[in-house]
Amino acid sequence: IMCGIIGIASNKPVSINIINSLKKLEYRGYDSAGLATLNNNFIDEKKCSGRVVELEKILFKSPSNGNIGIGHVRWATHGVPNIINAHPHSSEEVSVVHNGIIENSDELKKDLEGQGFKFKSQTDTEVITVLVTKLLQNSKPLESVFKTLKKLKGSFALGIIFRNYSDIIIGARRGSPLAVGYSNEENYLGSDSYALKSMTNKISYLDDGELCVLTKNNVEFYDVNKKKINKKIYTVSDDENISDKGDYKNFMSKEIFEQSETIKKCLSEYTDSLKKDINIYNFPIEPKKINKIILIGCGTAYHSCLVAKYWLEELTTIDAEIDIASEFRYRNLKFNSNNLYIFVSQSGETADTAAALDICKKNNVKTCSIVNVVESTIARNSDWVLPIHAGPEIGVASTKAFLGQLIVLYILALKLSTIRGDTDKKIYSINLNNLKKLPEAIKNTFKLESEIQLIAKEFLDAKGSMFLGRGNSFPIALEGALKLKELSYLHAEGYPAGEMKHGPLALIEEGLPVIVIAPKDKYYEKTLSNTQEVIARGGKIFFITDNNKRLLSTNIRFRLKVPHVDNLLSPLLLTIPLQLLAYHVALLKNCDIDKPRNLAKSVTVE
Ligand code: F6R
User: Any residues with CB less than 8 A from the CB of 506 and at least 6 apart, and which?
Assistant: First the structure.
């Protein structure tokens, strides 16, 4: 289960703060929610299917008064999203919230049923509840949890409360992230620091195998061998406009329109206008010795890796490879200590990406992560971190993080090109100068919104759609198709335009919307020919370009002109109309923009 967890031990009632934190955690899962507090030696459990607001209504009618409690938002894997399967899972003695998957739950359940224990839900989590309950008959809470953990296979983060030990919450981590927060007469457990930010900025992170015991005044940590340990306390950054939509209808539109600012901020972090240089230092491998760069990510982050491959090939003499994290982690790879392995992830918690990083670490190769959340697992586990400085991204569909990833990857390629002597100083300074124009160009691209609103209408009744591009516009075609799929549930395919004739052209029929991404680069004429092939078969073309010249063909249904920037940077601008298109189609279809169905923001399950 890929979900959000919160736990609060306090000297005052906690249910309202649990609800507030769960709202922040909804980006992790939102098909059911629940909480449990301890009230006069009684576990007061409340659950609902659907969103946290439903849980809030239940609490409004029947408040929970306990000073200690746990809460959960769920993204279902084992068992349908209904009240019974919602967390917490409680017995009379204990209540458990869980993020992750217990791989041997079927065996454990069979065994426990054989001993006469009863199960209420279809979840893997309930075996934890039953196991701890059973072990509590003969041992104290900490011991029972340790013994339970020994029996579990899989990955998890847990929060547990105990009827007869009314002042403690036990937390445990193996594979899924878990943070601890500190405040006055109040301590917290959370799936991430973001959920705790409104209450504290003092945070510790559990590492795999560790366990913690929280009371309102104290937190103790233990390692796998039950040895007491000390943990470092971080002060997490206090980002402005964290979770406020401002005047925007939803986070996604805020995050799209913020991109001129987030890119400006990121550029100011990485470029030194006085020295006319990029301030990236401390490469984990001496840049001249880098043999190959392998870029790894999932979904949108993978698309930014794809663009970076074109950049590295164009700007440097380094070989570049890309990989989808869920594939990388299971292949039989040959590791090389002269290769740099770069992990791209907005959240820094994506399970597949984190696992791929672990494999690299085990093979003693150097790793770099490009993340938005600098306190994240992936950031903490890599040798070198390049943050994208985009600020919290709340909309489940990634937008400003994608542009942030692109800009950092571009800056990295540029810096490598100059220190390795792959490009001469003059070209370096021209390329660097080109970056300055980006924020304004991004702002000007937003002006296309009213045209895009018209285009969106033409997608409403379409059977499907295609997105085509070549060169560094090909990954943008993939990203455009992904955005449309996830936001509007409309079928969309992204393809390299030159591949159409090898199969996908068969999909083209009268009126099928086809987005062609065609900046005036070295592929332009080729893309035009591919466009004609689609037109000849009845496809309805939406042509996105930075070329001022109008095309003579009248068969193009709509032409969108983005500002012209250097060809290397055009992917950043060409992405924006596609984000807006997905957004407006979803809006017309009345879809839940910030929380598309079946998805979650932080994919902490494999
Ligand atoms: C798509 C989207 C996902 C993520 C992917 C990786 O809009 O958001 O495809 O890009 O799940 O997530 P991170 O970047 O957090 O590793």
Answer: none
